[in-house]
Structure formats: structure tokens, C-alpha cells
Design a protein that fits this description.
This protein is an alpha+beta fold. It has one domain (12-101). The chain has helices spanning 46-59, 97-101, and strands at residues 12-15, 34-40, 64-68, 75-81, 87-89, 95-96. Strands 1, 2, 3, 4, 5 and 6 form a 6-stranded mixed beta sheet that branches. One of its GO terms (molecular function) is endonuclease activity. Pfam families: Uma2.
Length: 108
């Protein structure tokens, strides 16, 4: 079952082991334990994935948001929620997907 975050269903979600998703009556509920939302940017979704969903996921308090470009390197943009409730690009910036699957990213 896909879980909604606000009005969106992320392409991939990672949940805390101790807090798996639970069913909710509201499409805006049920984000407790959601650690990461990932979106794959496609032709018609650039603005939605890069700006709108990013803002809504930050509003929902999701600690990490990644979006993946469908470019030659399949670039992954990793963002972490800061103390002001906004996403910041992680220190080493966007990375190719190949780097991501061969590296253990640091978690702050």
C-alpha cells in the first residue's frame, strides 16, 4: 500500500525499524517514523519534485529528502532537514547514483 505525505506519494520511502507505517484515516497523517522520502524527477515533474514536494516534505518534518535526476549520471541530490525546518543540500553535494550505491553516506 502506498502511503501519502500530504497530497503526494513518494517514489520510495524509508521508515524507522521501530516505527513502520501505520494505516491512517487522513492522507496527511502517518509520517511518524518516516526517515527518507525519495522522488525520481521525470519530464513533467521537475518543478513539483525539486520545489513543491521538497517544501511539503520539510513541512511534514521528514528528516531527509532526496531527488534523483534522469541525467547521464543519474544524479542524486540529498537534502537534510535543518533546525529551521528547511532542507539543506548535504555537504558533498549532488552525487552520481553509482557513487551512492558504493558508499556508506554519513548520517548526522
Amino acid at each position: 500500500m502506498s502511503r501519502r505525505v500530504g497530497t503526494w506519494v513518494p517514489d520510495l520511502m524509508v521508515w524507522a525499524k521501530e516505527m513502520p507505517p501505520s494505516s491512517a484515516r487522513s492522507s496527511c497523517a502517518g509520517t511518524a517514523g518516516l526517515l527518507l522520502a525519495v522522488e525520481v524527477v521525470s519530464g513533467g515533474s521537475e518543478v513539483v519534485d525539486r520545489i513543491i514536494k521538497k517544501a511539503e516534505y520539510a513541512n511534514a518534518g521528514i528528516p531527509r529528502y532526496w531527488f534523483i535526476e534522469r541525467d547521464g549520471a543519474t544524479t542524486v541530490h540529498r537534502h537534510t532537514l535543518n533546525d529551521a525546518g528547511e532542507y539543506e543540500l548535504e555537504l558533498n553535494g549532488p552525487q552520481p547514483f553509482a557513487w551512492l550505491i558504493t558508499t556508506v553516506p554519513g548520517i548526522r
